[in-house]
């Protein structure tokens, strides 16, 4: 039997797995990383990166239309050639793959292009039967999209299928009201589809500040997306060349060319040998970890989506780096603080949030004050665009510590990062007010909220 020995074996070469491997290697550890699929995992191949490419294209379409209003000699309703766009998107992703391959080589990480499963707390078996022994094993196998269990569900796709589209389908239904549903709705609308968003609840993005999500729903509708709340899909069936969705709540049925489910993701734990090795799952089917990414088995760790803690790339990366700093970098207390993680929903315009919603703050503190700014950004005003910006700040206690910042508007994705630092550092409303504005920008409104 072929057996090799390492200090650490990492399962998965996505955001968390790559970060763990590179950081461990930088501390001098001998690392093997198993990844059977293209390097970079969900984020690089079927997540953040291709999504942002499509978002940027949809954003450009919107800006070209505004430019036409301002007198530029461009079409008021620009069309994009999808083959060209997809070729550029792939070229960008190929560049990331190449840079990862180079880094793996430079850092001496052994990339094994196979799946692995645990035989025990110190042994991983590859698909070809090779056994890898290690002092430490890191599980970073990510998550996968879920489809609801309903008749005809196989006729619908998930976000992975969105990335396989070669052109904008004429009529698309997106089921769900979370991050992916909102993002795909905006992108497909911007790139030429007629989009219907089927949301089972009464609000988009549950867990976000409801005032912000109400404005988000208004924005989507204003753009021409058909947002239907309280609408459940009962079944899908073939209808000529299309798909008929049988609905509850609203019209009894509707026909679409493409149906995409964006109904959540589940940790990828199947076939990992977790039971054999004794690695426990939590109530949601994620690998249970403590604050230091330790699983129930000493020497076995888990990071990223497989632990279902804030399914975000920078979270997987940060958790992995701190784990390796702790194991190999002489930093025994290193761990990720999962509080106040900022994130952006790439809608049009985007929604950036950090900290607590007003609802969460009121449940936690006796004194809560909120401050707002609502305005039409200058380019929208110049081009007769109707999309408005809503900024909101949530403050708690007598000293008005800022506990939540929510920005829905052009540039929110780029503005939020700096304010996330301030919030994490404990900024108060007074300190925000004391900061001189930068004029004329949208960002200045963050320090001018009333
Ligand atoms: P992954 O990146 O999924 O990597 C897991 C890897 O493990 C995979 O490559 C898989 O092939 C491999 N693997 C699985 N089983 C095994 C095995 N047995 N052996 C070896 N390898 C195995 N996050 C953001 O922060 N910003 C965004 O804009 C954003 N947009 C997104 C858009 C979409 C459509 C989706 C689906 C997700 C998005 N995310 C975004 C979330 C982000 O992609 C994930 O949080 C992140 O990729 C998680 O990293 P990970 O390392 O835990 O898992
Ligand atoms: P979310 O958890 O964000 O949203 C899932 C949505 O599906 C919710 O609206 C939920 O409704 C709805 N839903 C669940 N089950 C059903 C069902 N059976 N029928 C109808 N609707 C259903 O998951 P996503 O799939 O959108 O995204 C997964 C994760 O990926 C996100 O949580 C995020 O962490 C990450 N991500 C991050 C992005 C970013 O940073 N920009 C972009 C994309 C993904 P209800 O609220 O009623 O439960």
TrEMBL record:
NCBIfam families from the UniProt entry: PRK06116.1
InterPro entries named among the record's database cross-references: FAD/NAD-bd_sf, FAD/NAD-binding_dom, FAD/NAD-linked_Rdtase_dimer_sf, GSHR/TRXR-like, Pyr_nuc-diS_OxRdtase, Pyr_nucl-diS_OxRdtase_dimer, Pyr_OxRdtase_I_AS
The Pyridine nucleotide-disulphide oxidoreductase dimerisation domain, residue ranges: 341-449
Organism listed in the record: Stenotrophomonas nitritireducens
Stated name of the protein: Glutathione reductase
Catalytic activity, EC: 1.8.1.7
Keywords: Disulfide bond, FAD, Flavoprotein, Oxidoreductase, Redox-active center
Membrane-crossing residue ranges in chain numbering: none
Similarity field: Belongs to the class-I pyridine nucleotide-disulfide oxidoreductase family.
């Amino acid at each position: 039997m072929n057996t090799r020995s390492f200090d650490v074996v990492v399962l998965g070469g996505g955001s968390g797995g790559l970060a763990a491997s590179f950081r461990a290697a930088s501390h001098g550890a001998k690392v093997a990383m198993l990844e059977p699929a293209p390097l970079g995992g969900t984020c690089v191949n079927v997540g953040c990166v291709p999504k942002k490419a499509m978002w940027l294209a949809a954003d450009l379409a919107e800006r070209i239309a505004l430019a036409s209003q301002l007198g530029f000699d461009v079409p008021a309703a620009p069309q994009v050639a999808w083959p060209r766009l997809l070729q550029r998107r792939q070229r960008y992703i190929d560049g990331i793959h190449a840079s990862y391959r180079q880094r793996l080589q430079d850092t001496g990480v052994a990339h094994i292009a196979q799946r692995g499963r645990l035989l025990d707390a110190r042994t991983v078996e590859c698909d070809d039967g090779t056994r890898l022994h290690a002092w430490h094993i890191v599980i970073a196998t990510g998550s996968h999209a879920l489809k609801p269990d309903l008749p005809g569900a196989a006729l619908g796709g998930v976000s992975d299928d969105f990335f396989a589209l070669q052109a904008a389908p004429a009529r698309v239904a997106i089921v769900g009201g979370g991050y992916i549903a909102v993002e795909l709705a905006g992108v497909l609308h911007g790139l030429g589809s007629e989009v219907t968003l089927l949301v089972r609840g009464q609000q988009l993005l549950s867990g976000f500040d409801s005032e912000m999500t109400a404005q988000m729903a208004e924005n989507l509708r204003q753009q021409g997306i058909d947002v239907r709340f309280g609408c459940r899909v009962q079944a899908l069936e073939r209808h000529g060349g299309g798909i008929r969705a049988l609905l509850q709540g609203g019209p009894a049925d509707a026909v679409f060319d493409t149906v995409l489910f964006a109904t959540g993701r589940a940790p990828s734990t199947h076939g990992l040998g977790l039971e054999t090795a004794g690695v426990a799952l939590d109530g949601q089917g994620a690998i249970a970890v403590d604050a230091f990414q330790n699983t129930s088995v000493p020497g076995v760790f888990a990071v990223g989506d497989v632990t279902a803690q804030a399914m975000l790339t920078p979270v997987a990366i940060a958790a992995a780096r701190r784990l390796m700093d702790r194991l190999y970098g002489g930093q025994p207390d290193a761990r990720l603080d999962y509080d106040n993680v900022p994130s952006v929903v790439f809608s049009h315009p985007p929604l950036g949030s950090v900290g607590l919603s007003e609802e969460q703050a009121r449940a936690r503190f006796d004194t809560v004050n909120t401050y707002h700014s609502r305005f039409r950004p200058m380019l929208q005003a110049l081009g007769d665009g109707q999309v408005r910006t809503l900024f909101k700040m949530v403050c708690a206690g007598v000293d008005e510590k800022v506990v939540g910042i929510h920005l829905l508007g052009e540039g929110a994705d780029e503005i939020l990062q700096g304010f996330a630092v301030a919030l994490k550092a404990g900024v108060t409303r007074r300190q925000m007010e004391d900061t001189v504005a930068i004029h004329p920008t949208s960002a200045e409104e963050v320090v001018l909220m009333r």
